[in-house]
């Protein structure tokens, strides 16, 4: 696993317990992964000009890109990337300098930009664009480009948010058992 973890200015990614990182992925710099996280093939995560934090049981699927925005005079903190617990990030998602709560699903191919805040228990539809600075309220499905609040989540969808996370924890455990 060490070949996929690279330092930037002497800072290496930190990895929690029982984490799976596919050997085709690259994680650079100030990144901290919680426990039971899974990083799938061809994920690129650069914690170079700010930091990236992933909560427990979060999964980042194939081909996703995680990045941050640098600190500057107009924005002294810049925009780190903060992802909560039990988050499913679909294939080929772009997350850039945003904050994502717990129990969130970001659909395949979605783009989430600087300063966005996604509250807990949210689903974002595949291919959606979340423009800079937008706040997505808890308990809703959001779709479109730019994203719009579509409707409240159904009970089955709320349950699926946790089920998706649980499924990826089980799958990464199978991968870990083979390594």
Automatic annotation (TrEMBL):
Extent of the signal sequence: none
InterPro entries: Hexapep (IPR001451), LbH_gamma_CA-like (IPR047324), Transf_Hexapept/Carb_Anhydrase (IPR050484), Trimer_LpxA-like_sf (IPR011004)
Taxonomy of the source species: Bacteria, Pseudomonadati, Pseudomonadota, Gammaproteobacteria, Vibrionales
Name used for this protein in its record: Gamma carbonic anhydrase family protein
Organism: Enterovibrio norvegicus FF-454
